[in-house]
Specification:
Belongs to the peptidase S26 family. GO terms for molecular function: signal peptidase activity. It catalyses: Cleavage of hydrophobic, N-terminal signal or leader sequences from secreted and periplasmic proteins. The protein has 3 helices and 12 strands. It is α+β, with helices and mostly antiparallel strands. Helix content is about 30%, strand content about 20%. α1 packs antiparallel against α3 (about 215-255). The longest helix has about 40 residues, at about 215-255. A hairpin with a 2-residue loop joins β6 and β7. The chain starts with a helix and ends with a helix. The protein has 2 domains: about 5-35 and about 220-255; about 45-210, Umud Fragment, subunit A (Ribbon). The strands form 2 sheets. Strands 1, 2, 3, 4, 9, 10, 11 and 12 form an 8-stranded antiparallel beta sheet that branches. A 4-stranded antiparallel beta sheet has the order 7-6-5-8, with no helix packed on it.
């Protein structure tokens, strides 16, 4: 086989592979985008009640879930007429059957008598209620609540200003929210791009554990791989043509002599 024939064969194979890469990339990109659109819903957080985890004006991605799948530690979006019929974003700290109280001698929240460490309350940007050198207590006011079955007890991470279950302790259900009111679970802050919201380790140690991670990392991975394949496949043609032109130059020079 001549050199030209071998080159043509490699060229055809390269074109086939590049077309395949573009096709697979399109499937991954469009599939990941469609999957995300079905599973996730964007929300804009209107207040600073979840600072520093989520700040006012942040754009979050929340996975559509059934209220029955919610676990302690989840940051959820819910709508309850008792709270004003507008979507609220809070953290679940108690589920049906729990006794939620605050604060113990170390200023911590307790669930069924077990103290819960909440590092997100003291992250950079969180306000301090008792000075700059000490950690703020989990709540500026003491409270105790028994969570009825089928309901959840929720708090904001900005405990000094959040209007949460503590404000509704005198309501039926002691400030709890029905699981059926939950619309979604917040998995990530999309803008600014602060990344995934993790599941608190302290809640993982309690009976029932924490919820599993949502599919967002897989969806983002599919999008990124799709983009790489599309760009790589599309670049093959120009690069191959440039390589062919370089290969022809020595032949042209030899013919001139």
């Amino acid at each position: 086989m001549s050199g030209s024939g071998r080159h043509d064969g490699r060229g055809r194979l390269g074109n086939t592979l590049s077309n395949l890469a573009v096709a697979v990339g399109c499937v991954l990109f469009l599939g990941g985008f469609a999957w995300g659109a079905v599973v996730y819903k964007p929300y804009t957080v209107p207040t600073d009640s979840m600072t520093p985890t989520v700040n006012a004006g942040d754009r979050v991605l929340a996975e559509r879930v059934d209220g029955g799948d919610v676990r302690r530690g989840d940051v959820v979006v819910f709508t309850d007429s008792t709270w004003g019929d507008v979507p609220m974003v809070k953290r679940v700290v108690g589920v049906g059957g729990d006794k939620v109280a605050c604060c113990d001698k170390d200023g911590r929240l307790t669930v069924n008598g077990e103290p819960v460490e909440e590092p997100y309350l003291h992250a950079k940007g969180a306000s301090s209620l008792i000075g700059t050198d000490d950690k703020a207590p989990a709540s500026p006011q003491d409270f105790t609540a028994d969570v009825p079955e089928g309901r959840i007890f929720v708090l904001g991470d900005e405990r000094s200003t959040s209007m949460d279950s503590r404000v509704h302790l005198q309501d039926p259900g002691q400030g709890t929210v029905p699981r059926s009111a939950v619309e979604a679970r917040v998995d990530a802050v999309a803008w600014p791009m602060n990344g995934m919201i993790g599941r608190p380790a302290a809640f993982a140690a309690l009976p029932g554990g924490v919820s599993s991670e949502g599919p967002l990392p897989l969806q983002v991975g599919a999008l990124l791989v799709g983009v790489v394949l599309i760009l790589g496949g599309a670049a093959h043609g120009p690069l191959s043509a440039r390589s062919a032109r370089k290969a022809e130059r020595p032949k042209a020079s030899a013919g001139a002599h």
